[in-house]
From TrEMBL:
The gene is xylA. It comes from Gracilinema caldarium (strain ATCC 51460 / DSM 7334 / H1) (Treponema caldarium). HAMAP family: Xylose_isom_A. Binds 2 magnesium ions per subunit. GO terms for biological process: D-xylose metabolic process. Belongs to the xylose isomerase family. Its EC number is 5.3.1.5. The lineage of its organism: Bacteria, Pseudomonadati, Spirochaetota, Spirochaetia, Spirochaetales. InterPro entries: Xyl_isomerase-like_sf, Xylose_isom_bac, Xylose_isomerase. GO terms for molecular function: magnesium ion binding; xylose isomerase activity. This is Xylose isomerase. Homotetramer. The active site is at 109, 112.
Length: 447
């Protein structure tokens, strides 16, 4: 097998396989901390981190924003005779990039890899034609599909939602798209299938039957799950929480909201969370909080690895660069045994004024290095055991005696209330937040 994939044309000439060169390297096209074969706690970094490249940002985005046209050249578009040929060229560019980077997985929306047709049947035909070509490239390179999904937000027909649209005809179009995307994911051996409700919400409650829309969404997901299982799909379904944008309010607001929704419709055994850092920020939460909440509920699945800008109130989808944030993220993930499904998908795009082909590599390299650092810091924290010991001691009153009986449900409320007389005045025990924050900085610095 070649060191990296190149189709009929090399789209990133002059850039070879990205290697690990260590923290003293001055080479911008080399890993400083991510050494894929390095063992951390019995598994390699590659096995722990399960990096994926987001097809939409990396190969569909061209720097266009609401104020201006695209700034980034996409050479795979330049010599295509028609959209389908362009889709195959883009596929070659994607697999060249992914294999040069050394990522193990990729993720896509249906409309990322194949153009929409004039009818649902034509759209499905286009998709499965490109899927067959993607399958060939997966076999040639060993790159795998982490998860697939359907774009139920770009087409104008979805302006009022997809599964929650007040027009039943639109709901049927959404189902046709999801059915085809599920079939594509199965054909490519995808390990998961993701739902993101970009327009599953409302712009105004004055024209919205909120109860009915949420029930329609629940029914839609139950039907999609049952269809996928009937087709032999054994992977995990993900919901990706986000509070708003493009809708004023999305029904998948945050992890707690989605957890309640899944339980309401009996989906909690099949679905997990795909948690995005930038979406957590938009919901008013820390990335660490959303990960911890999903872990506590037994619903953690996968991660869209990016970051937002705290000064901008929208989804900036920047590459993750904070070692502090990645260390806390990996601490949560390692505490629950690491990824059993999913991985770290770089749902991030280079900035509009980053116009060199190498910029896309450098952005991914930085993100992969950041999570490699986070992995090692989190592993040291767990091995050292100081945080775990402190937390255990803080809750020690529930480990024996009346506290243990309370936790086990062996106490009536009046008995619990009566114990206050026995305990009398209660002292104050420090939470030691500042000490623990200082300790985290020590781990980050490797001290």
């Amino acid at each position: 097998m070649a060191e990296y994939f190149v189709g009929n044309k090399e789209y990133f000439p002059g850039i070879g396989k990205i290697k690990y060169e260590g923290p003293k390297s001055d080479n911008p096209l080399a890993f400083k901390y991510y050494d894929p074969d390095k063992k951390v706690g019995g598994k390699t970094m590659k096995e722990h981190l399960r990096f994926a490249v987001a097809y939409w940002h990396s190969f569909c985005g061209d720097g266009t924003d609401m104020f201006g046209a695209g700034t980034q050249k996409q050479p795979w578009k330049q010599d295509a005779k028609d959209p389908m040929e362009g889709a195959e060229h883009k596929l070659d560019a994607a697999f060249e990039f992914i294999t040069k980077l050394g990522a193990e997985f990729y993720c896509f929306h249906d409309r990322d890899i194949a153009p929409e047709g004039a009818t649902p049947a034509e759209s499905e035909k286009n998709l499965m034609t490109i899927v067959a070509k993607a399958k060939e490239r997966q076999k040639a390179t060993g790159v795998k599909l982490l998860w697939g999904t359907a774009n139920l937000f770009s087409n104008p027909r979805f302006m009022n939602g997809a599964a929650t649209n007040p027009d039943f005809a639109v709901v049927s179009h959404a189902a046709a798209q999801v059915k085809a995307a599920i079939d594509a994911t199965i054909e490519l051996g995808g390990q998961g299938y993701t739902f993101w409700g970009g327009r599953e919400g409302y712009m105004s409650l004055l024209n919205t039957d909120l109860k009915r829309e949420k029930e329609h969404l629940g029914r839609f997901l139950v039907m999609a799950r049952d269809y996928a299982r009937s087709r032999g799909f054994t992977g995990v379904f993900y919901i990706e929480p986000k509070p708003m944008e493009p809708s004023k309010h999305q029904y998948d607001f945050d992890v707690e909201t989605v957890a309640g929704f899944l339980k309401q419709f009996g989906l909690e055994k099949d679905f997990r969370m795909n948690i995005e850092a930038n979406h957590a920020e938009l919901a008013g939460h820390d990335f660490h909080h959303e990960l911890e909440t999903a872990a506590a509920l037994g619903l953690f699945g996968s991660v869209d690895a990016n970051r937002g800008d705290p000064r901008n109130g929208w989804d900036t989808d920047q590459f993750p660069m904070s070692y502090y944030e990645t260390s806390l993220a990996m601490l949560t993930i390692l505490k629950i045994g690491g990824f059993t499904t999913g991985g770290l998908n770089f749902d991030a795009h280079i900035r509009r004024n980053s116009v060199d082909p190498s910029d896309l590599f450098e952005a991914h390299i930085g993100g992969m290095d950041a999570f490699a650092v986070g992995l090692e810091v989190a592993h040291r924290i767990i091995q050292d055991g100081k945080y775990a010991a402190f937390v255990k001691q803080r809750y020690a009153s529930f480990d024996a005696g009346d506290g243990a009986r309370f936790e086990k449900g062996q106490m009536k409320f009046e008995e619990l209330a009566g114990l206050a007389k026995e305990y009398g005045s209660v002292g104050f025990t420090s939470g030691k937040q500042e000490r623990l924050e200082n300790l985290l900085n020590q781990y980050l610095l490797g001290l």
